[in-house]
Design brief:
Order of helices and strands: HEEEHEEEHEHEEHEHEHHEEHEEHH
CATH class of the largest domain: Alpha Beta
CATH architecture of the largest domain: 3-Layer(aba) Sandwich
Number of helices: 11
Structural class: alpha/beta
Number of strands: 15
Radius of gyration: 23 Å
Bound molecules: zinc ion
Length: 382
């Protein structure tokens, strides 16, 4: 046991017991990630709720090895290796169901860093109506999903809810076509299990990459194919080809807007002619935090921010969360999506944030569901 004077006193509670308590707290708070970061004096624990981080706890340096070691055992990782990247998963029993946890250990210069991602199977139950997008965006998306073939792309930066939307879209297609269609997915990793889909997972080491997996999967001739993400040229060209030959493809791309996505596809080697033939349906989206209903209050809006959001009416009521125990003093609880649907059009794919996204966000601000500061943060308007 290290007892150097600079060390914090040993925690009176067993680190494993404290760890279990942190897991429970993370689940109760609806956290998506739990980070264990090595610092000079111990292990700092932060959690991410609704896309933003907050400190949760810390462990003294003397307990760090035990904490990381316990997670490694849970996730089936080699607890004696401290110099390699390791990834694993385990199930956390919770009240309603089990929560799947993805564990990733990264050796850093100050010690091992641990990231836990909480995947809740419940989120795959989201329907398009649960996403929070407005009626017009939903109607356009539903229209695109009625097609027997084509490409529907969800586009946004990391943490913009693309995967949740993609699953909701797949469930929507299944609601209409049912067992009359054949559903296959290729994902990295499989985030939620859906009973009606043959889900496969990319495994680079075994050679089951996105392009190879896609070729294999297409030989099974699926009607509806979910591709977790398009991020390389081969996957892009196979996906677009498949969209032209009788398959409905649902996928995601990283990017800020339709313009970004189209530029990226061209950069990956997809020709303008192919893009014009497929006319991908692009759904740009973001997630905004919603105001806590328990503490929101009417509040004024700085004129500069009102202009950026296109709010011209004088005295339009806007709201802000003041912070209470229900929202852990953040003023926000939960998140809701804003979406801008559009078709790829040859020669007209601007690069900036879509005006439709700003308009969708403005609706939410005017309805008191979120505030202008959150929208400015998410859409980079500040
Ligand atoms: Zn509150």
């Amino acid at each position: 046991m290290k007892t150097a004077a600079s060390m914090p006193p040993p925690s009176p509670v067993d680190p494993a017991v404290r760890l279990d308590a942190l897991f429970r707290e993370a689940v109760v708070l609806g956290a998506s990630d739990l980070l264990f970061e090595p610092r000079h004096d111990g292990l700092a624990v932060r959690l991410r709720v609704d896309g933003t981080f907050r400190p949760l706890a810390s462990f003294p340096a003397a307990d760090a090895a035990q904490v990381i070691g316990r997670v490694k055992v849970l996730a089936g990782l080699a607890s004696y290796r401290h110099d390699v990247v390791q990834e694993g998963r385990f199930d956390l029993p919770t009240d309603d169901a089990s929560t799947e946890v993805r564990a990733s250990v990264l050796p850093t210069v100050s010690g091992e860093k641990l990231t836990l991602r909480f995947l809740r199977s419940g989120r795959s139950d989201y329907s398009l109506a649960d996403l929070g997008i407005n009626d017009a965006a939903r109607a356009a998306l539903e229209g695109a999903l009625r097609a027997r073939f084509g490409l529907v792309l969800f586009v946004g930066p990391a943490g913009s809810g693309k995967t949740t939307s993609q699953y909701a879209a797949l469930r929507h297609v299944h609601t209409h076509r049912g067992s009359d269609a054949h559903y296959v997915s290729i994902e990295d990793p499989v985030e939620y299990r859906l009973p009606f889909v043959s889900q496969t997972e990319v495994n680079e080491e075994a050679g089951y990459t996105f392009p190879r997996g896609l070729r294999a999967v297409l030989r099974h001739n699926p009607d509806v194919l979910l591709i977790g993400e398009i991020r390389d040229g081969e996957t892009a060209s196979i996906a677009l080809e498949a969209a032209l030959t009788g398959h409905l493809i649902l996928s995601t791309m990283h990017g800020a807007s339709r313009g970004d996505c189209v530029a990226r596809l061209e950069h990956l080697g997809v020709s303008k002619r192919t893009l014009a033939a497929v006319e991908p349906f692009v759904f740009s989206q973001r997630l905004v935090r919603t105001l806590c209903k328990h503490c929101r209050e009417k509040a004024g809006l700085p004129p500069a921010l009102a202009r950026k959001l296109g709010i011209r009416r004088v005295g339009v009521a806007t709201w802000r969360g003041t912070g209470c125990s229900e929202c852990k003093a953040t003023g926000y609880r939960g998140r809701s999506a804003i979406g801008a649907p559009s078709r790829f059009v040859v020669g007209r794919n601007g690069h900036s944030t879509e005006p439709a996204l700003i308009a969708a966000a403005r609706e939410k601000v005017e309805a008191g569901l979120t505030d202008a500061f959150e929208v400015a943060r998410v859409l980079d308007l500040a």
